[in-house]
Amino acid sequence: MQLQLDNLFHSYGSQAVLRGLNLQLESGEIGCLLGPSGCGKTTALRCVAGFESLDSGEIKVGGVSLSRKGFTEPPERRQIGMVFQEAALLPHLTASDNVAFGLQGLPVAERRARAEENLAMVGLAGVGEHYPHELSGGQQQRVALARALAPHPRLILLDEPFANLDVSLRQRLGREVRDILKSAGVTTLLVTHDQYEAFMLADTIGVMRNGVIAQWGTPHEIYHHPVNRDVAAFVGRGVFLEGVVRSADTVEVAGVVVHGEVAAQHHAGDTVDILLRPDDVIEDAEGQVATVKRRAFRGATIVYTLSLHNGEAVYASLSAETDYPEGASLRVRIAPAHLVLFGGGAV
Amino acid sequence: MSGVVGSLPRSGYLAESRYWSAIAFLVALPTLASLIIVVLSLLHPDTEILGHLLRHVLPRVTVNTILLVAGVAMLAGLIGVGLGWLTAMYHFPGSRFFSWALLLPMAMPGYVMAFVAIGFLEYSGPVQTLLRSWAGAEVWFPPIRSRGGIIVVMALALYPYIYLLARNAFLTQGRQALEVGQSLGLTRRQGFFRVALPMARPWIAGGLMLVVMETLADFGTVSVFNYDTFTTAIYQSWFSLFSISSALQLAFFLLLLVFVAVALEYRWRGRTAYITSLSPGAGVVTLTGAGRWVAFGSALLVLLLAFVLPCLQLLAWSIRNGQIDARFLDSGLRTLSLATISALMIAAVAIILVYALRNAGNVARLAGRIATLGYALPGTVLAVGIYTQISGLNGFLNSSLESLTGASPKFFLQGTVLAMLLAYLVRFLAVAYQAVDAAMQRVTVRIDESARSLGVGGWQLLRRVHVPLLRGGLLTALLLVFVDVMKEMPITLMTRPFGWDTFAVRVYEMTAEGQWEQAALPALSIVLTGLIPVIILTRASSHAVATR
User: Fold this and answer.
1) Span B132-147, mean pLDDT?
2) What residues of chain A, 130 to 189, have a C-beta less than 8 Å from chain B?
3) How remote is the C-alpha of B453 from its chain's centroid?
4) Contact by Cβ (8 Å): B328, B522
5) Long-range CB contacts (< 8 A, 24+ apart) of B238-243?
6) Fold (CATH) for B56-321+524-548
7) What's residue B547's pLDDT?
8) Which residues are registered as beta bridge partners of A158?
9) Is the dihedral angle over the CA atoms B47, B53, B59, B61 positive or is it negative?
10) One fold for both B8-45+323-512 and B56-321+524-548?
11) Do A151 and B454 touch (CB under 8 A)?
12) Could you tell me if A75 and B12 are in contact, meaning their C-beta atoms sit under 8 angstroms apart?
């Protein structure tokens, strides 16, 4: 069902946490609020769930108002499923009974069948009779997802659902969960501080800062076209180098001229900051000399921290076959696929 | 603020924290008032009696109490730590059996062990009689009614507290500690003294603290031995001198000792903390040669002295002389109903307090601390404090009724069940609170929230989530309070309605007259009932250790 957040404001005492948050998710879409701790993303989620009330603004699901100033539909009447960082399974119930917990008013046989069906959907057919403490962390989190999905909620909320899992499990489960949510066709709002989790799961990402969404877009847009320096710094790795605009399609940076589209607000002669991602620096026998300061082995690639001739540092993600030791010299070229420029100093 | 949901994340569906704070303070009130009354009593000394007390009573009971506490703590510590180490670290004949059986003496109140020991070992008792028939009338025997005698008896009754905690410490970290020690070149013996023992210090300190508290609060055991301490002095100024104010002043000095003990423990434990990391499996050494029989013998000796022999003696006396007569049944019924009512009431208050502290703010937490302080207040002190409160309330009610109606009603709240129940509540609330609170830890805020997001709120939430999760802790609370009330002696003696006999009162009255055999049947009833929670809880805890 469609989710709509209109100009949400919320504060704890005098501490304003949400300052006019806007967001819209279409039916079946997976949205994500991405941001550092304290940006208000979890509070936004708790407002949608009904655990917090609004100072002003409105939350609508499927066009029906659930929260506004002075009114908060209690969580138990919202039909919004939620999965927490800790699975929060009921320790006295089996996995199957946990999944059936929210299925009140159905005949027992149907409840069992629905529980089994949902356990199978998250890949846990056959563990229904196990108690939570007999399951691994990843399994518990799957049961929690099955439990939230079982009553066919209008919306699913995921609050950093993989934060307690180890990295490899997190990646595998992330892909699986996206498939599960998509096949269930349920509208989902995810909250996380982990950009890879967001990229893996979400159709659309809202990068949050200080209680508002700084940028709303696809993972590709967020990564390659950040709207401001904060978003650029938070999402992905990279450095800012100072450069000068030469023309409508050239910028001079670190002594070389690079080509690309320059946004209309920058004029020739302006000083700008150029975002350079690790994949914007490539090895080139014709290029300038750089020295390896540090290296981080990543399997197929090695991410080098390079010092340019003028002392500025950039990252370069090169094939692992290069295998330069620290202190080695190589020739690189700055070749961004497209230019991401911010006005010098202010954004 | 919305009335439906609080603004703080941890507040749940019953989120009016002001009311919960008020409730928490109300629960803490009798404890707080008792403390204040005892301290303020110094402002109104009954000078004549106080002079007598200062000259003749205070010096003697102070010395007696301190020597008793020191002796019991040392001996119980030696037995508890030693047996804890043996059963945690070694295999020897019967070691698995001893590991839980050594907790059985918890069911045996000190006053029961005391009169059994005296009846068994005194001049006219079976042991000395037998000795004289062998070796003639002049055979020497250590005097049982002595400071040494009472220290041995109390240490045997109280060592399980230290044993339980020390063993737990050694089980959870002792093996690892030893391995660290061995990797640094220490022998096993050096490892015990230089690594395991210091690491177990917080646990041992906690156990010693319980033993010291129990010894300071003890009334029954010292009465049987006619050994004068603060508790007996308070009792006597109450019942022989009829001086409430001097009872209060003595209570103040006893309270002072309690605080000194708390402060000492705090300093000794210092900044060490309870850290639990279980290193599974490794390192239990199987004893061979003479060592195994020394271990077996010492464990067996303690178990015999502290539990088996007293039980057998009680059984023999009960069979020979116990009469299940109207008086016995009457006191049994009283004990049963009193313990049941108290257990239900105290568990109910504990639930309310747990919910209050869950939903209220930090200020209420202080109230919770105060409300659960009662376990540190000796029963005699509490009896005096509660009595004073009740009679003050009574006077206020009487005089205000008089001024309202003109008539002068003369009803008395003191010496009613009300005063008794209130004193039990203050004394045993901490026991019930800890059991319920431990269960409540499982009901996290997230659990509440996920249940609500699944459409389960309000009473449904209580019925389907809270009740099943709290059930075990609640049963533990009921059981522990039931047994504690049944064993309790000084509060019952000092606040009971006239003519109310319980098993503990019967034991006191019979032993005061030296009629050990008549005391045996009620004492045996207390011990057997007390075994129930000991067995249930030791099984639960050994299960927990085994499955961790």
Assistant:
1) 82
2) 144, 147-148, 151, 157
3) 43
4) yes
5) B238/B384, B238/B494, B239/B494, B241/B49, B243/B46, B243/B49
6) MetI-like fold (1.10.3720)
7) 41
8) A83, A190
9) negative
10) yes
11) yes
12) no
Is A86 in contact with B8 (Cβ distance < 8 A)?
A: no
Please give, rounded to a whole number of angstroms, the shortest distance from the CA of A83 to a CA of chain B: 7
Residues of B with Cβ-Cβ distance to A12 under 8 angstroms: 7-8
User: For the packed helices B467-487 and B417-440, what is the interaxial angle rounded to 10 degrees?
Assistant: 140
How many CB atoms neighbour CB A168 within 10 A? 8
List beta partners, residue A247.
A250
Q: Which two tokens stand for residue B171?
A: 């089980």
- Does the ipTM surpass 0.90? no
For the domain made up of B8-45+323-512, the CATH class stated in words is: mainly alpha
A163 secondary structure, DSSP code: T
CA distances from A330 to A241, A310, A318, A336 (A): 20, 15, 12, 19
Q: A72–B5: do the CB atoms touch at under 8 Å?
A: yes
Annotate A196-234 with b (16+ C-beta within 10 A) or e (fewer).
ebbbbbbbbbbbbbebbbbbbbebeebbbebbebbbbeb
For residue B464, give the H/E element and its range: none
Q: Does B453 touch chain A (CB under 8 A)?
A: yes
Helix (H) or strand (E) holding A50: none
Task: Give SS3 for A301.
Answer: strand
A interface mutation test: which of B450, B463, B464 has the most A CBs within 10 A?
B450
pLDDT, tens digit (0-9, with 9 covering 90-100), for B416-455? 788 899 999 999 999 999 889 888 888 888 899 999 999 9
Residue type at B44? H
User: In the structure encoding, which two tokens stand for residue B44, read together?
Assistant: 């109104």
For residues A145 and B454, the answer to whether their CB atoms sit within 8 Å is no
| Mean pLDDT of all residues in A229-249 | 87
Tell me whether A74 touches chain B (CB under 8 Å): yes
Domain parsing of chain B, residue ranges: 8-45+323-512, 56-321+524-548
Q: Could you report the per-residue pLDDT of B200-229, keeping only the tens digit for each? A: 888 888 889 989 999 999 999 999 999 999
**Packing angle, helices B17-40 and B362-371, rounded to 10:** 40
